[in-house]
Every structure is written in structure tokens, then in C-alpha cells.
């Protein structure tokens, strides 16, 4: 049966145009060019595909591989925007538009502010002193919030939050989840911990170690509710009714009821509702008896969603919902027919539905990690048969647990081996080295991945398995041959200062006349090693540790073999343990205090803080001024994690500088006068995903007030200031 693409093609063109407009912020003329280019490419591709499908697919796959390789060498420089106005304190009454985790969107119904910012309406809440279990969709609460406008969107950082009302579905969902957790509490190990997450998205029993193992193995998406989960649940309900001999109409009703139950169970926040609606469209196609004829319905739904909210164009959850639904209606039937050659028809259909959805989501899932991990592909293939079993059987067990905990627990035990298998795969991945083939990040990488998968499907559809294998081998060969060379070409060389992207932490490189010092290491050894490889650093002449918090010194042992000297400030028991480990590698420790100077070749390092007899910790962080010339201007000032009180005591003692590191990841505890006094052109902010609200709007505001540019690693990745003063960054800010 031929696919009806008459509506899908123009909607896809509109989607691409909206995405381009969002990313490029293009003006009218540029948008017209984008529309014209996309339309011409679509028409020409359709013509080439119809006339020479195999040649088209082969050339397309090789071209994409080459284009991906070139994109790996591209680096963007950008300065993020700071808040439009200083924050105000407001008492707000609001309702959550999504569930945990933070940040979440809220509708502010009423507010009383120190100033008069006007009606707030919809806002993004970045921080809230609420139990994560209280952050359910539809929850109404009051809170004392710091409020500011950022790029046209209201932002909230809230404290003293009090829940006023929890919606009925949230109370019901919490009760159901609680019964399910009690019924499965006896199931041991990782299988028991993962069961609720894989079945209903409840990860409360999954500890940090297991979550990290799942993330490293590329399996974390299995515990997040998305369009793929809704497709699996919908398909399972449809397949179960079919296995019982029900007619098509009854099958669709059963599938719809299963989907509604699942949506309530996982809380019907907007992302789940969107995924459920897309799965419902697939059900309409099945009801008509023409699964592939559901494509126009999907296209119509996408058009309506983008018309109402164009920002959905670049929302990962929306894209996954569309992909999963399209895969369900396009490939579940042929895949089920192919599997039925070896399996009973009900079992073949049960496997085909989630497999088709997962296949279509694969390019996006790969791209979310900014690379292709060959072992991750293997882990996902190995987990593929188990994931639908846990989802479907776990949902049945959850329903049964509401009537009998014993019966629910026994049914859950059927799914436990599959959950334990997935957990074992994640644990096994920890014992093997991590290998990642570079791939362009973001939406460009997603499109390239999708084109490669589509090219392979075209060849396989034409029953040219050998051609598909050869083309795939050519692509892999091209990538393996050119990526190392491109990475070598694009690696940083003529840099002076590098702020490494090590997540929520600090690691900064400074170089002058062939001498290199590393200020702090960050918490992640792998991220630090990657930064050193990018900058071609294989020798560190001195390691400077501002203090011994894990986010500043946690990866010190990873560079112990590259240096012979570590310079540090006040110590405590934890510091002594870290220094002992470094000493075992032959690293000599040198303690310094305010007023001392250290010379590392041509690099002069003035110690400006702490005073003698200071205690270890944030207040005792080293404050350093690094010089490479005798002109009195520091190349870099390092503030460690000192707060406003210590910064005020430094007033008048800091030299002017070309760059400065924001104190304490740009927390609230800052002295605006110090930043204004130094007024560096660039302030580097080492920050990653965190629950502290870093960088805070107040800190970004005072950096802007000092006429400095705030360059953040959470937006730009690794950042370098070159010898000629230009700025390089690993990626472009969104």
C-alpha cells in the first residue's frame, strides 16, 4: 500500500522552516530563501528517489556522512543574553503546567511584587523548595519568588512554597504508584529498582549509581515517559484484544482505554497528553482499517500543534511523539508480517509495534548524546525485547496491585527478569571502556541521522541487502578515516585561556610561552581528559587547587601523572586525603597564603586570598591573579568560591584583568563593586546542570553592569580565549 504523503510533505516543509527560523532567528528574506531551498530539495529528492532509488540512497548516505564529518570541525562563538531587568521579589499563587523535575512551567494566577512588573501569566520556575513528589501537574501553590524577565519569558526562583491543592488525577496517580511500590518492594536488586521506572516512569527507587549506569549505557530513555511508551502501551492493548479474537472496533476501544489509564497513571502533563494524542491518531488509522492512511491525520495534528505553539518545532518530546506514532502506523504492520514468518501472529504484532516506534525514534535518541556509542547501540538492541515486556506487564501489575498487593506483586515478578536484564546491561556497560564516534549535536545531527536510517530503509525495501551493507560500510569507513583527521585539524592550538566544560564544576587552563597551569580539575575525570585532548595538553607545569570541594578537585588524580607540583590553600581532613593520593604519584604539595607569589616559568601567580590561619572551604578559597607580562594587567583572575563578604575585603587589591572566573559558579553571593572594579571584558562561568539555580540572574546582571560578557560552559561547552583575543566555543548558544 502506497503512503499518502500529500499533506505530510507540506507540513514537514513548514516544520523545517519554523525550526530554521527558531535556530537562525532569520529575517523575512532569509526565511523565504529557507522555504524555497527546502521545497526545491524536497521536489528534487522525490524525483531522484522515484527514478534512481538505490543510487539516490547510496549518494545521500555518503553525502550525509561527509557533511557530518565537516560539521564536527565547526565551532561557534556566542555571548548569551542576561536578564532584561533586575529581579523583583513577588508573592505568587500559581499552578504547575508540568510535573517534576525542575524547571517547570507555571501559570501565575496572582502576584504581589515589590515593584510593578505587571501581570506575569505563564512563567518558567527554575527553583522551588518543594518535595519533588509534590511537583505534580496541576498542583496549585503559593511561594515567595525572585521574578525577572528573560528574552520575553518570566523566570521564577521560589522559596517557602506551600501546596494549596493537588488535582484529583495527581492524588489518584500518587495512590496507584504507592500501591505498586508496596507490591513490588520485595523484588530485589536492580530489577526491582528499575521496574516502576520502566513500567510507569516512577524512578523513586532508582539510586544515583544505577541512574548513571543507565545514562552511560544509553538506556536512560527507557525510564522516561515519551511517545514511544504511549505507542507501546497502545499497541499492547490493541494486540491483546486481537489475541482474544476481538473485532477491529473493540480492539481500538481497548487500546484507547489502556492509553487513558496509562496517561492518568504517569500524570497527564502536557508532554504525556501530546504523546497520547499522537497515539490516538494512530488508533484512528487502525479503526479505518488503513494504518498507513493515518499519515494525513498525523500531518494535520502536527500542523495544528505548530500553529498553536510554534516553539514545539524544536521540542524533543514532541518530535519523539511524532516519530513514534509515524513508526507505529508505517512499519508496525510490515514488520509484524515479517516476524510472523517465525513467530505466532499475536507475539509478532506485540514485538513489531514497539520495535517500529523505537526504530523511528533511534536517530533522535542517538543525537541527544552528541555522538554514536557503538556499545550503546548493542545495549539498546539487547534491551529491545525486554523493554516492552516490562512496560506492558508492569502496567498490568500496577492495575492488579490496586485490588490485591499479592497478585500485583506476583504479576510484577513476571516482568522482574526483563527489568533485571536491562539493569545487568547497564552494570555491564560500566565495566567496559566508553567508545563514542563523534556526531554533530542538536537538530542538525538528528536530521543527518534520520537521513542515514531512511537511506538504509530505501535499500532494504528494494531488497538490496548487499548494497545496504556496502553503503553502511562506506559511511563508517569515511567517518573512521576522516573524523580523527578533522578532530586533529580542529583541535585548539593557539589558545591562552581555556574554560573546560566539566559540568557543574571548575577546570581552567592557562598558558604562556610554552608553560601550562591548570586551575582546579572539576568533578569528572573523563570530561577533564577530553578537554586536555582538545587543547593538546600532555604536560601540566603546575596544578592550582583553589579549594578541595569535589566540584573543584574531584578529578585531581586523573592528572597526577601529568604534573609534579600542586599549589593549594588551607587544608582539612578531606584535603589531606586528596594530597596523600597525589603524593603517591610523586606530586609535591605547596601551601600558599595571601601575599605570596609563585613563578611558573614566565607565568607569575599572585596569591590575593586567603589570609593566614584561614579555615578550609569556600571562604578559604585561593584568589589568584595570573600574569604573563609586566604591564600590571592580569591575564586572568581566579575567585574560587569566595562569597560577597570576602569579595568586599578584596576591594582595591585586584588588578585590572583581561578575563576573570565568576566566583562560586555565579551564585547569588557576589559583590557588584568587585566586578565593576576589575571590569574584565570577559567573565567565564563554569557551570553545568544543577539544582542550585546557578548561574543566578543577580550574578549575570552585575556582570552585565560591569560591561563584561558572561561566557557560560552550560551554554557554550568548552570556551577558549585565543592569543589574539578572539573567543572560541565548542558549540553555539541556543
From TrEMBL:
The keyword Membrane applies. One of its GO terms (cellular component) is plasma membrane. Residues 504-682 form the Metallo-beta-lactamase domain. It is found in: Cell membrane. Its main location: membrane. It comes from the Bacteria. Keywords: Cell membrane, Membrane, Transmembrane, Transmembrane helix. It is a multi-pass membrane protein. The keyword Transmembrane helix applies. The chain crosses the membrane at residues 30-49, 56-76, 219-242, 249-266, 272-287, 294-312, 318-340, 347-366, 378-399, 406-428, 440-460, 467-487. This is ComEC/Rec2-related protein. It comes from Agrococcus casei LMG 22410.
Amino acid at each position: 500500500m502506497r503512503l499518502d504523503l500529500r499533506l505530510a510533505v507540506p507540513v514537514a516543509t513548514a516544520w523545517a522552516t519554523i525550526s530554521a527560523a527558531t535556530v537562525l532567528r532569520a529575517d523575512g528574506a532569509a526565511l523565504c530563501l529557507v522555504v524555497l531551498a527546502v521545497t526545491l530539495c524536497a521536489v528534487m529528492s522525490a524525483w531522484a528517489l522515484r527514478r534512481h532509488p538505490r543510487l539516490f540512497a547510496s549518494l545521500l548516505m555518503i553525502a550525509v556522512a561527509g557533511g557530518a564529518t565537516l560539521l564536527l570541525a565547526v565551532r561557534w562563538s556566542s555571548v548569551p543574553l542576561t536578564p532584561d531587568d533586575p529581579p523583583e521579589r513577588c508573592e505568587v499563587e500559581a499552578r504547575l503546567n508540568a510535573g517534576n523535575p525542575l524547571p517547570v512551567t507555571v501559570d501565575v494566577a496572582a502576584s504581589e511584587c515589590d515593584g510593578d512588573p505587571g501581570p506575569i501569566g505563564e512563567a518558567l520556575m527554575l527553583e522551588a523548595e518543594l518535595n519533588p513528589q509534590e511537583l505534580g501537574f496541576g498542583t496549585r501553590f503559593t511561594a515567595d519568588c525572585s521574578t525577572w524577565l528573560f528574552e520575553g519569558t518570566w523566570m521564577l526562583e521560589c522559596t517557602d512554597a506551600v501546596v494549596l491543592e493537588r488535582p484529583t488525577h495527581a492524588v489518584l496517580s500518587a495512590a496507584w504508584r504507592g500501591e505498586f511500590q508496596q507490591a513490588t518492594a520485595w523484588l530485589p536488586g536492580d530489577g526491582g529498582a528499575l521496574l516502576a521506572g520502566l513500567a510507569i516512569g516512577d524512578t523513586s527507587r532508582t539510586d544515583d549509581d544505577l541512574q548513571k549506569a543507565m545514562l552511560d549505557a544509553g538506556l536512560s530513555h527507557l525510564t522516561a515517559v515519551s511517545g514511544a511508551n504511549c505507542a507501546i502501551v497502545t499497541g499492547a492493548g490493541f494486540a491483546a484484544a486481537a489475541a482474544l479474537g476481538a473485532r477491529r472496533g473493540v480492539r481500538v476501544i481497548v487500546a484507547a482505554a489502556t492509553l487513558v489509564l496509562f496517561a492518568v497513571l504517569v500524570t497527564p502533563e502536557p508532554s504525556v497528553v501530546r504523546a497520547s494524542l499522537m497515539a490516538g491518531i494512530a488508533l484512528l488509522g487502525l479503526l479505518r482499517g488503513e494504518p498507513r492512511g493515518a499519515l494525513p491525520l498525523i500531518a494535520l495534528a502536527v500542523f495544528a500543534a505548530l500553529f498553536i505553539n510554534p516553539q514545539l518545532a524544536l521540542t524533543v518530546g514532541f518530535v519523539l511523539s511524532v516519530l513514534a506514532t509515524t513508526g507505529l502506523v508505517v512499519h508496525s504492520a510490515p514488520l509484524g508480517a515479517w516476524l510472523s514468518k517465525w513467530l505466532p501472529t499475536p507475539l509478532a504484532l506485540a514485538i513489531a509495534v514497539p520495535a517500529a516506534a523505537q526504530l523511528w525514534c533511534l536517530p533522535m535518541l542517538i543525537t541527544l548524546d552528541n555522538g554514536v556509542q557503538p556499545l550503546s547501540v548493542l545495549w539498546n538492541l539487547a534491551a529491545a525485547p525486554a523493554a516492552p515486556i516490562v512496560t506492558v506487564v508492569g502496567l498490568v501489575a500496577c492495575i492488579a496491585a490496586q485490588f490485591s498487593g499479592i497478585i500485583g506483586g506476583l504479576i510484577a515478578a513476571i516482568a522482574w527478569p526483563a527489568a533485571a536484564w536491562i539493569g545487568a546491561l547497564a552494570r555491564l556497560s560500566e565495566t567496559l571502556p566508553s567508545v563514542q564516534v563523534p556526531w554533530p549535536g542538536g537538530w542538525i545531527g538528528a536530521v543527518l541521522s534520520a537521513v542515514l536510517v531512511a537511506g538504509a530503509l530505501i535499500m532494504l525495501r528494494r531488497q538490496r541487502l548487499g548494497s545496504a551493507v556496502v553503503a553502511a560500510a562506506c559511511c563508517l569507513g569515511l567517518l573512521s578515516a576522516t573524523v580523527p583527521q578533522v578532530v586533529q585539524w580542529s583541535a585548539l592550538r593557539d589558545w591562552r585561556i581555556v574554560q573546560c566544560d566539566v559540568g557543574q564544576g571548575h577546570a581552567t587552563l592557562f598558558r604562556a610561552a610554552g608553560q601550562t597551569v591548570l586551575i582546579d580539575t572539576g568533578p569528572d575525570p573523563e570530561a577533564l581528559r577530553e578537554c586536555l585532548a582538545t587543547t593538546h595538553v600532555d604536560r601540566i607545569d603546575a596544578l592550582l587547587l583553589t579549594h578541595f570541594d569535589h566540584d573543584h578537585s574531584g578529578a585531581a588524580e586523573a592528572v597526577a601523572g601529568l604534573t609534579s607540583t600542586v599549589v593549594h590553600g588551607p587544608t582539612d581532613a578531606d584535603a589531606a586525603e586528596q594530597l596523600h593520593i597525589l603524593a603517591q604519584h610523586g606530586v609535591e604539595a605547596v601551601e600558599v597564603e595571601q601575599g605570596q607569589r609563585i613563578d611558573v616559568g614566565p607565568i607569575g601567580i599572585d596569591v590575593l586570598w586567603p589570609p593566614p590561619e584561614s579555615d578550609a572551604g569556600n571562604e578559604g578559597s585561593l584568589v589568584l591573579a595570573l600574569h604573563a607580562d609586566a604591564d600590571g594587567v592580569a591575564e586572568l583572575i581566579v575567585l574560587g568560591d569566595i562569597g560577597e563578604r570576602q569579595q568586599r575585603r578584596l576591594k582595591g587589591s585586584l588588578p585590572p584583568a583581561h578575563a576573570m572566573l565568576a566566583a562560586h559558579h555565579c551564585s547569588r553571593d557576589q559583590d557588584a563593586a568587585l566586578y565593576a572594579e576589575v571590569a574584565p571584558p570577559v567573565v567565564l562561568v563554569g557551570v553545568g546542570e544543577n539544582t542550585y539555580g546557578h548561574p543566578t540572574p543577580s550574578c549575570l546582571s552585575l556582570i552585565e553592569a560591569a560591561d563584561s560578557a558572561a561566557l557560560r560552559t552550560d551554554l557554550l561547552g568548552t570556551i577558549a580565549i585565543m592569543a589574539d583575543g578572539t573567543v572560541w566555543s565548542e558549540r553555539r548558544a541556543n
